[in-house]
Amino acid sequence: MDAHHLPNIFSSIVSTACRVVPDLAHVDPSRILVCVRKLPPTRLGETLGLRQAKARRGHDPVFSTMSVGGREILYVITFNVSLVSTAAPSRQALETVMHELWHIAEECDGTIRPARHGKGFNATVAELHDIYLSVGGRPVPTFEPHARVRLRHLRGKGRPGVLSVRRGLSIAATVPKAWKQAWTEDDMRERTAVLSKLLPPSFSYVCPHGHEVVRFRKLSKASSCAACSKTFDRRFLLSPNKKTPT
After folding, report:
1. What is the pLDDT of residue 123?
2. DSSP label of 230
3. pLDDT for position 79
4. Is 52 helix (H, G, I), strand (E, B) or coil?
5. d(CA 163, CA 161)
6. What are the DSSP E strand ranges found in 94-158?
7. pLDDT tens figures, 220-238
8. 3-class DSSP state for residue 179?
9. Which of 34, 37, 52, 192 is geometrically suited to a Cys-Cys bond with 153, CB 3.0 to 4.6 A?
10. Cβ distance 137 to 20 under 8 Å?
11. How far apart are alpha carbons 206 and 224 in whole angstroms?
12. CA quadruple 37, 39, 42, 48: dihedral, nearest 10
């Protein structure tokens, strides 16, 4: 059975979004390398700008270079493989694509847009999502746990870079010293795996009103349903869902 090539699937959606969504017209998809791999459950995607070289006190600026197929790469966007699971919320995967694209600076020069995460950022992402679908863009497909999928990642341990907000809206990229160099196509690794082996274990809980909550860790203390109450309320305690294995 052929494997579903997830990097190509996400690359196609990225290219379509940049073409049909006006607010993403500044993004050049040919300058983006899309990777898909297993990330921590709480991290659905990450964007690394290879020119995001904000020098910190006592540190040299970091300017990475990469060429793939004769084209210069300015951004590496990595998506969590869990986004294509049938257990993922329907909007989550596509909103993650829009989220990562919105991080790209208006100049599309390898730097990151100086914007904080928050209600305003999330509202913009939701609007991009709705515009994309309204003009006929296709959502991210989902696959059953037994499906074989193709992944792509960059050589090295851990993430190639971590973006963080420092001093207001300035963005700094912390890149390990070993990565202050040119990336080559040999640094890309691809492999095929069964989707179920890449997904984190999930634990299903339900509240007295029937709202189902999925967690990637067992609850270590009493927790209440956020849909029923924004603050902790013992009337809406979560209990293991008997209908699904935990």
Report:
1. 95
2. S
3. 96
4. coil
5. 7
6. 148-154
7. 899 999 889 989 999 999 9
8. helix
9. 37
10. yes
11. 10
12. -80
